[in-house]
Every structure is written in C-alpha cells, then in structure tokens.
Amino acid sequence: MSEVLLKVDNVYKEFPTHGKEVVHAVDGVSLEVFKGETLGLVGETGCGKSSLARCMAHLYDVTSGSVSFEGTEISTLSRRAMRPIRREIQVIFQDPYGSLNPRRRVGSIIGDPFAIHGIAFGNERKKKVQELMELVGLNPEHYNRFPAEFSGGQRQRIGVARALALRPKLIICDEPVSALDVSIQAQIINLLADLQRELDLTYVFISHDLSVVRHVSNRIAVMYLGRIAELAPTDELFGQTRHPYTRALLSALPVADPDTADSREQIILGGDIPAATNPPEGCRFHTRCPKARADCAITEPPLAAVLDDTDDHRTACLHPLTLGEDLSTAVPDLKAS
Ligand SMILES: Nc1ncnc2c1ncn2[C@@H]1O[C@H](COP(=O)(O)OP(=O)(O)OP(=O)(O)O)[C@@H](O)[C@H]1O
C-alpha cells in the first residue's frame, strides 16, 4: 500500500466578488498524493488548478474541508504553527520572470529560504546556495548576477533551486514550463525528474497541457470547473479513458502518426465553460456532455471507484461504460452537441 503524503478531503475554495456572487474555484475536491509519485493535475484555464495547489500548500485558507500532510491537519494552522511544515512543502510557479525580483542577485534570491528560516549565515549560506546552483545546472560563479542576465530556462532553474533549499518532501509545480520554449521545457522536465530520483521528492505537477502531464505523471487528475472529473494512473487514463470530458481533451491532442489521426474520433464540445460564479447543479460537466442524462443535472453520476473496489485509485463518471451511445434519456438540448 502506497504511503499517503498529502490528503485533500472535500476541499472548497470560494472567492468573494465585488457583487453578491461568489467564485467557486475549488468545489469539493478529495484526493491523495502518494509518497514518491508525480500526480499530474490537468484542466482548462480557470478550472481551479492553481487555487487547489495553493490550498494544498496552505498558501490559501480553505473555505471548508481539510488538507493534511503526513497525517497532520494543516489547513487550519496559523502561520507560526505552519512554519516547520512550510519547509516540507514548496511551490514552483509558472512565471520565472515575474517570480524573481529583478533588483536582487540570484545568490540572495536562492538563499531566501535560509534567511527566512534562520539557517546558515555568511560564507556557509553562500556555499549552500552555490551547491544548489550546481545541483540544478547553474554555474555557481554566477552567484552575483541579476535575473535579467539569465535565460528563461535558467530563471526557472533559479526557481527550482530556491524550492529545493530546505530539502522539501513535496514540491507543487504550478505550470513550471508553460512560459518556456518547447526545447527548454524538456530540459526543465528532465531536471525535475532527475531531482526526484536523487532527492526522493514527491510532485504535484500542474499543467493545462495534457501531453506534458502525461510525460511526467504516475497518476493524473483531470479537473473541470472546480471538481475532479477523472483520476487514474496515467496509462489507464490514456488506455481506458472513462470520463467524456477526458475523452474530449484527449481527442484534441496532436498525434505523431497520421494513420492514427485519421481513425481517431474528434470530440468537439458544444457551448462554453459555465461561469465559476454559477456552476451547474449535479454533474458540473452535464451542460456540455455528449453522454449526459436527465439525472446528471440533479446528481453527480456514480464514480468508478465506488463500483469497482479493486480499483480504488480511480475516479470517473461511468456513463460511457454503462450507457454506450444510448442518449435516449439525455437532456433534449444536449443531443445536438
Ligand atoms: N484571488 C482570486 N480572487 C477571485 N477569483 C479568483 C482568484 N483566484 C482565482 N480566481 C478565480 O477562480 C477560478 C479558478 O482560478 P484558478 O487560477 O485556480 O484556475 P486555473 O485552472 O489555475 O487557471 P489557469 O490555468 O488560467 O491558471 C477562476 O474563475 C478565477 O477567475
């Protein structure tokens, strides 16, 4: 049995708006992150990935629900009580440009966690920072340079070095390669994979790009409008896709082999993603789902994990399996989509 490092239990995160409405950014998410794995989190822009990530690291207070790390409930901890756990959970953000202060030298930026936690001073800190620079493939002699003197990929390496400073157990990578050129993306992904092996790290890897997530993840959670639509081991998610939303995402992926491309079903979803201020009742996806039935507007369809207890790491709508192409009971205006 895999060891659970982080557990998210029925987490909701709401943001007030200027009016009376509330943004339901995370809308009842439960999942576990196992020690040593990479859990990919994928979904279209605005589906709540970053909000969930920030709840996981307790950078945001949850509206309700709980997050526990190594069995300790962290979502209610004060900043002070969170301090020792903050060392264990680090976040790497998307924008290597925006997340580095342009007026500070990289040695001082990477050394920030040591300064905040009162670890190592003077030359000892400099030595530790230079070791980190070497670990992530930066030249330690560039200690006194400013962020602008580094390329995009090198700046993301600075972000990785800073995240590693306190030797965390869990790193939440929030779109770490999205701002980079494709050739540089591969370098950063390989670096993260090497570091995972070397330092026994666990990752939550967030991306809107399913092909990147497929490459790095042991399991993948697909998010739609604040909820997890499907969660499965990577091979199963691609080999036995269950959720209609995941099928649509997969069908949009480019394929290398033109023969496969010809035979592959392209699923074009009708309509827009509903507003996060007013998500649909029942299944969040039912307004766009080609398999939706009338009851999907009232209740979430049964989950695979509930029916198949040999497969307790899977979560997905079962309609494609149980209903096939039969849309006879579908909500009428959905049939056309
Ligand atoms: N601080 C905030 N205040 C108000 N609304 C917010 C805030 N942060 C996020 N939201 C809203 O919550 C929803 C989820 O946003 P979030 O950034 O978590 O999604 P995401 O999947 O990470 O999107 P992206 O891929 O674009 O970063 C969106 O509707 C967004 O506008």
Provide structural commentary.
- This protein is of the alpha/beta class.
- It folds into two domains: 4-224, P-loop containing nucleotide triphosphate hydrolases (Rossmann fold, 3-Layer(aba) Sandwich); 241-334, no CATH class.
- It is 32% helix and 20% strand.
- The strands form two sheets. The protein has a seven-stranded mixed β-sheet with strand order 6-7-8-3-9-10-11, sandwiched between helices.
- A hairpin with a 2-residue loop joins strand 4 and strand 5 (72-73).
- Residues 305-313 and 320-337 have low confidence and may be disordered.
- The chain binds adenosine-5'-triphosphate (ATP).
- The site of adenosine-5'-triphosphate (ATP) has 13 residues, from strand 2 and helix 1.
List the helices and strands and how they pair.
Layout: E1 4-16, E2 22-34, E3 38-42, H1 49-56, E4 64-69, E5 72-73, H2 79-86, E6 89-92, H3 106-110, H4 112-116, H5 122-135, H6 152-164, E7 170-174, H7 182-199, E8 202-207, H8 210-216, E9 219-224, E10 227-233, H9 234-239, H10 244-251, H11 258-263, H12 304-307, E11 315-316, H13 319-323
Parallel strand pairs: 3-8, 3-9, 6-7, 7-8
Antiparallel strand pairs: 1-2, 1-4, 4-5, 9-10, 10-11
Helix pairs in contact: 5-6, 6-7
This protein binds adenosine-5'-triphosphate.
GO molecular function, one term: ATP hydrolysis activity
Protein name: ATP-binding cassette domain-containing protein
Domain ABC transporter: 6-250
